[in-house]
Amino acid sequence: MSLESMFRLRENKTSVKQEVLAGIATGLTMMYICIVNPLILEAGGAPFGPVFTATIVSAAVACFVMGFWANWPIGLASGMGLNAFVAFAVCGAMGYSYEEALGACFVAGVIFLALTLTGVRETLVNAIPHSLKLAIGAAIGGFLAMIGFQIGGITVNSEATLVTLGNIKDPTVILCLLGVASIIILEKLKVTGGLIITLLGLSIIGWVTGLQELSGFVSAPPPMTLLFAMDIGAALSIGMLSVVGTLLFVDFTDTSGTLVSCANLMKKVDNKGQVKGIGRAMMADAVGTVVGAAAGTTTVTSYIESGAGIKQGGKTGLTAVTVGCMFLLALFFSPIAISIPKWADAPVLIAVGFMFLEGLRNIDWADVTESSPALLAVFAVPYTYSIAVGIQLAFLTYILTKWFTGRSKDLSVPVYVIGAACLIAFLI
What we know:
The protein is mainly α.
């Protein structure tokens, strides 16, 4: 079977070159997770090397499922936030072992797999009101841009105002700002691969000038000593119910938000707010989570950095497959992967964040019951530093405003189900 027939390239008005370049763009912006994930989980008692390998293997498997099964250009890997929850809450404050935490991740993954196979997840996602779908995308865009400003040093913490202007005389900050300008200029000039050119260009400058150390080129992957180490029995105990529930809800909201946002960019949302083919797309994170827990890492989710590839022209699963291949290469080229400066990632995240804000123009601003919850999501996601919390607040506000303005007929049963889950998440 050819790549054309497998991914329907002509039908989607794309090419192998365009898809591969898009995959490289997404892969480069995601590569940090190979190092950051094991570093975070190491704080919860997990060994760095085996988690490094497990992170890459589970990400590759999930990307291949996304590419070959769903034909969506979305990259997946162990989710940020959930890894910290496991390391500092489950293994830290609660005192569970890392193997028991992996068991909880495995159980959550199996439940997700069942919900996906039965179509329940797709029903719930498609029930999200259209205004909130658009708002979630914009909120995540703002979130991405804010993260980009932070890691680029453009903004820094402030005790008085929470955030303030960073040291714009710092060479890395200057390079970050030049990187943003570079992406915009290359985009305007319609230069193919603008994101990759900027990211690699900044990295090379960092290595040559000594602003970033190049750790090497090739190394052997660490052994998978955590394979099938999860303690499923412990995960099924009463005490772990809240852990499994938290993993389920946060992954549902994070993945839903990311997929809906990317679907808007890919024009996969129809006039009724239904997302075409999202059921198959959601299979990837479910399978990835099950495989990841068995391999030795935490919950796998769709990455909003996929917007970098979509902006680069990615339209099919070949983009996701390319991302998966890049992860597998990282097993052997980890020194290069870990040597890409974070401040070089920043311009990409900022530029992609700007792109996601486009959906705001399609919100019905004349209807306060639609626009107000949407705006709450836009501000809550970046300011709470949580996609899940932003979505929860927006949903609860949406339901309340509809009820108390006599518009309860706008609310469907799935919306009430999601709202109830949001309320429970706040209470536990």
